[in-house]
What does this fold into?
Amino acid sequence: MPLASPKVAGPPAPATDRLRVVDVTDFYSDTVSGGVKTYLHAKAEHLATLGVDHAVVVPGEDHGVDAMGASRLHRVKGPVLPFSRAYRLLLSARRVEEILEEERPDVVELGSPFVVPHLVRRALRSRRIPLVGFYHADLVRTFAEPYVTHRAAAPLRVAARMAARRLIRSVYDPLDVTVAASPSVAAELRSLGVRRVRHVSLGVDLDTFRPHPPGGPRSPDPGAGPHTPPVGLYVGRFCAEKRLDVLLDGYERLEPGRRPRLVLVGGGPLVDDVRARARGAPDLTVLDYVSDRTELARLYAGADFYVAPGPGETFGLAIGEALACGLPVVSVARGAGPDRVEGSGVSELYEHGNPEDCARALLALSDRVRAQGPALRHRARAWAEATLDWKQTVTALVKLYRELARTPTRR
It folds into this structure.
């Protein structure tokens, strides 16, 4: 639990001769996993080794501060988000202002696009500190498109998409730099009118996420025998933007005798719907959210391939974790998924919104796994080692932060 006073816990106060960086986001939950949370913990692990003093500001049940490695995790009391109760809102500009005055940052990074940018600007008042926006969430495909699905509501979908694009320009274009984790996302931001976009790829914990040694478990179901069909795995939220409907519609089109097994791990607003579809389907298994990273790595490494159905991924951390564990990938051909696997030789892509093509991709990769399983696993791991090193990510970010700290802010 957070401590009562933010001044009596956590690492020492920032040293004046070090670069000082503060992250502010409300895309953070203590009870569920998430790409932003993984990113912040990886930064906390590596920034101190690069001469950077680091603090993170997130909403919480009460005010307080904890240690996050060598970084400080400030919690600001905020209300629960009604439609996603694992998350809270960051609303207290006064408390954020107090934290920024205490931390004296050289650069502030904004990790969410709705309330946080306005809150930080208000907290900074007239202080001209460089602001970086990390584009963690695809606002069009994550918050606009998935919730308007009926054909009769097509005009509403168009209006929602246009509103999301206007929001992207209004939030990110005024910032000193906007960071995108994938080339396709960077290109889309520029096409929407956001200037000063920088591509910085994310990484994966290659020590935790790795293939099992020979003789290790080969299935998320420890009772599965050696001659069972290939196991496909999905790890993530059960929500509209992940388009699990397309995945499950495609999966149901496959002949029972040729289907792979499919294991879905996670939770979210659609968990009851997903579990209902799994009832009576012996080859489809739904498992609860797994918080322990070692256990999660065991699940990855015990499967035969990974499935990434979400068209709104801005990087695809789960795809990276799966590759690191030696899994080839079936991915929707939209968003950042194709960026993660392009050139790897261990993937199959399917058309966005097309269950028939999803079925084709599932069957094609299942057949490849049957024919080339060990070779595919080796190539997937080698690709992860070559492209997904967190040290490279944080080094690139620090270079950007130092550049901004030396340059007058444009605002």
Q: What stands out?
A: The two ends are 38 Å apart (CA to CA).
